[in-house]
Design goal:
The protein is of the alpha+beta class and 451 residues long. It is 40% helix and 14% strand. Helix 5 packs parallel to helix 9, helix 5 runs antiparallel to helix 10 and helix 9 runs antiparallel to helix 10. The longest helix has 23 residues. The two termini are 38 Å apart.
Length: 451
């Protein structure tokens, strides 16, 4: 057992006495203590001034589409990305056709690719000790159901897309925890075996052969839990009401992807971010922040929030939804409403919470945690945003019939990522993307995988 720290850093009896003396002793304090013994803090801190009717009118709003539900999974990134793709398909067909993509199908390959990313990472760091930070990074979380828009770029390019009607959701896709835990247990075991093979100086071919066998076992588990991916299917396009439009055709997943998405995703979209810790108008790239070994890390241009808002407004005016991500404090989930003052903790506790956005990120208080689809903005007479609206992936029973509304002040504080069509980005900003990126470490406080 390590020796106890010596010096004056502990809480002495004298210090404890001073701490206790500073506590208020009046009747108001006693009333709050009694109330907190039987009520939630949020019930006591609820700001009555913010409980009125929510303004649901927006000056600019994209067409609505069916609301999907990620349920007990961390696949918000996939749902938001697919929301963008299916809305683009509907827009290209002037809202006469609708498509819904299978999350279950692509999630299968997402998990298989992440398993390979882990195993290959273990091989490449096998010469390092187990307590090395890179080695611990891989073994700490071999598999995750979270992610970013980069996953859609790389996965669809390799595996295509299929309609939801061909591969509907399964129980395990909607409840990922146990499936992921089982696979992670095997991956950690496999990781140790691969490290031993490298230490024993086994030939590269033998190591790769064994890795393939390991991935075959992961594939089998995924086939049992999510269903083996289809290789060919029949499908007829439909309108929003479900009426068949056109002849039934036979597709492969890649053929369906090319027909419904058309343009290569990576050539169409650009990633933007608001991170006030780092200089703006620079390119950054997050190490190991990708879904496939041969894929893209999250690479973005860091911009002031005002620039991101201007770009988002241009996209919405043209009817284009966007992938976006947020932290979610001060969110009333039942009403689907975000406002900086929904709960008045400052008055309740007699404290201030003055940290800036940059300070919250640096101290792990705020992070990019949940992806949603940006669908609407309400502008004032001067063209400035008053509030925003997002399509969530928590089902129609959540919030505003599946949507959520956020005030402009909240948006500025807790919005982080935006993925937008390049054509809405000013040329002076767009050209920055070709600059050499500054690398951000994988353990940066901001970059939790979005769930």
């Amino acid at each position: 057992m390590a020796a106890m720290a010596q010096g004056d850093g502990g809480i002495s009896p004298e210090m404890l006495a001073k701490i206790q003396q500073t506590r208020p002793q009046g009747n108001a304090e006693k009333a709050l203590v009694n109330a907190m013994a039987t009520m939630s803090i949020n019930d006591l801190a609820k700001n009555a001034a913010k409980q009125g009717k929510i303004d649901t009118k927006f000056s600019i709003e994209t067409p609505k589409q069916n609301i999907h539900n990620q349920k007990s999974s961390g696949r918000c990134w996939m749902f938001s990305s697919m929301n963008v793709l299916r809305s683009r398909f509907a827009l290209e067909h002037k809202d006469t056709l609708a498509v819904e993509y299978s999350q279950d199908y692509l999630f299968f390959y997402d998990q298989l690719e992440k398993a390979n990313l882990f195993l290959q990472g273990v091989i490449e760091t096998a010469s390092k000790p187990m307590d090395d930070s890179d080695v611990k990074f891989f073994f700490r979380s071999p598999l995750s159901d979270g992610g970013t828009f980069c996953g859609i770029i790389d996965l669809t390019k390799k595996y295509g897309l299929v309609p939801m009607s061909v591969r509907p959701e399964t129980y395990q896709a909607e409840n990922t925890r146990l499936m992921s835990n089982i696979i992670e247990t095997k991956l950690r075991e496999y990781g140790l075996e691969l490290r031993s093979m490298v230490a024993a100086k086994k030939k590269t071919a033998a190591i790769n052969s064994r890795k393939t066998e390991m991935l075959a076992e992961v594939y089998r588990i995924l086939s049992m839990t999510l269903g083996e991916p289809v290789k060919e299917f029949k499908y007829a396009h439909r309108d929003k009401s479900g009426n068949i439009k056109g002849e039934e055709k036979t597709y492969t997943p890649m053929e369906f992807y090319k027909e419904t998405v058309k343009e290569p995703i990576e050539d169409t979209f650009i990633m933007l971010m608001n991170d006030p810790r780092h200089p703006y108008y620079k390119v950054y790239e997050v190490e190991y922040d990708r879904h496939t070994y041969d894929g893209h890390n999250w690479r973005y241009i860091n911009l002031p929030i005002e620039d991101i808002e201007s770009i988002a407004i241009a996209s919405l005016k043209d009817g284009r939804k966007m992938y976006s991500s947020y932290d979610l404090p001060q969110m009333d989930r039942s009403r689907g409403y975000m406002d900086l003052n929904l709960w008045d903790y400052s008055t309740l506790f007699g404290l201030q919470f003055p940290m800036t956005k940059a300070e919250r990120i640096s101290t792990f208080e705020s992070m990019s945690a949940h992806a949603m689809t940006l669908t609407a903005v309400d502008l004032d007479k001067d063209g400035k945003p008053k509030k925003w609206k997002v399509e969530n992936s928590w089902g129609e029973g959540s919030g505003q019939q599946g949507y959520a509304i956020m005030t402009e002040d909240w948006f500025k504080e807790y919005m982080f990522r935006l993925v937008v069509d390049k054509k809405y980005v000013p040329e002076n900003i767009l050209k920055i993307k070709d600059e050499k990126p500054t690398m951000i470490p994988y353990d940066d406080p901001l970059f939790k995988v979005e769930e």
